[in-house]
Structure formats: C-alpha cells, structure tokens
Specification:
This protein has 163 residues and is of the alpha/beta class. It contains five helices and seven strands; from the N terminus they run αβββααβαβαββ. It has a seven-stranded mixed β-sheet, with helices on one face. The protein starts with a helix and ends in a 13-residue tail after the last strand.
Amino acid sequence: MVKKISGFIFIAAALFFFRSNLSAQTKTISKEFPRFEMLLTNATHFQSSSVKKGEPSMLIYFSPTCDHCKQFISSLLQEMQSFKHYQIILVTYVDISEVKQFENDYHLKNYKNIIAGTEGTDFVVRYFYDVVNFPFIALYNKNKSLVAVYRQPPPFDKLKNIN
C-alpha cells in the first residue's frame, strides 16, 4: 500500500513539474522591448528606454559564473564583426562586482555596442521573459520589436542579419 502511494505521489509530482516546465517554455512574450533599469559597473544606471531605434538589439540574460554564458560570450566576441551594428545588452541579477569581473575578463569595455549590468533582485527582465536557463537571448529589430527568443544559444547564423 505504501509503495502504491509513493508511486502515485512520484507520478503526480512528475506531471506537475512537466506541466509547469512546459508552461514556462510556452509563455507568450510581449513584442515590445521591456521596461527595466540596471546598474552599470561605472555606478550609473541604464534604462531600457535609452535603447536606440534604428539599430537591432540583442538582449542577453546571463550569469557571470555560467559556463554556457562564458562560452557564448567568447564566441560572440569572435564573431563581433557580424554584430558591430547591434546594441548588445547583457543583463544579470548578480552583484555588480561579479559583473565588473566578467566585464574585465572579456574586455567588454573595448566594444562600444556592448553594455553590461545588473537588475539586482528586481527580476523585471527575468520575469518578463520567464528566464529559466542561461544564456537567454532576445533579438529585436531596428524598431525595437521582438524578432526571436532563444532559451539556449542558437547557431550564430540565426542571430545575424536582423533589421
């Protein structure tokens, strides 16, 4: 009897997890660029309203300690010639000291089109996109309208040539 109850609880828990995970992956995301603010490593604040129209944007939600994020950023920097006309916004939730270390490790200050910062524990961006995996990538066209969302890094060819 105890084994049957344990089995039932396990199946119920698995179904609940699967359903909640599925709904997280299929959430409808607004086509508009999210409104948020983040702290930059120079102690100033960046507001999403300052993202320029007329240029495509790539918003990357990441963690500085995530190996997939590190690999993605390394690869992105190697392909930077193809992304020099993009506004690239790196957003995380961790302490600004970790962002600063990441920025230094990858020499992000050398790229005028890359900005990195933390939204702290507000989680506005994280909840807007329902981020569950890192890195998360959202592409916006030059009109700041959502073009694509990637919950895991896609081939770089899919990220290029957004207008």
